[in-house]
Amino acid sequence: MLTVSVNQLGDVVVIELEGEFDIDVIRNVEKAWNDALEKNPRVIGFNCKELKFIDSSALGTLVKFMNSATNRKIALTLFNVTPSVITIFKTSRLDKFFSINSKEEFENKFLPVK
Fold first, then answer.
1. Confidence category of residue 114, pLDDT binned at 50, 70, 90
2. What are the CA-CA distances from residue 32 to residues 14, 35, 92, 113 (Å)?
3. pLDDT, tens digit, 9 for 90 and up, residues 42-61
4. Domain residue spans in the chain?
5. Is 89 exposed, middle or buried (0-12, 13-18, 19+ CB in 10 A)?
6. CATH architecture of 2-110
7. Is pLDDT at 83 greater than 90 in this prediction?
């Protein structure tokens, strides 16, 4: 089970993922992605703080999102990623493909100063 929510902070859209991201919930995440794109963001960040697991089909979906973001000149980043999920990215060598940040790095790089 995966809970997905989309929040906009100026020209930054944050998609929060909570639970397990696998083949059964890809359509939910694709809907959130499409909702995010409609907001014409400069940055889309995936908050992975509560993401417990990600399978290979979900990784493929994120690669598709990265390609879409690159074509639209949108920065895509993952942040707040748990050690167990980072291990999956490292094993698949996708840690070299994606921008993976701590929560603080994400906020410092992409969110406006208050």
1. low
2. 10, 5, 24, 26
3. 999 999 999 999 999 999 99
4. 2-110
5. buried
6. 2-Layer Sandwich (3.30)
7. yes
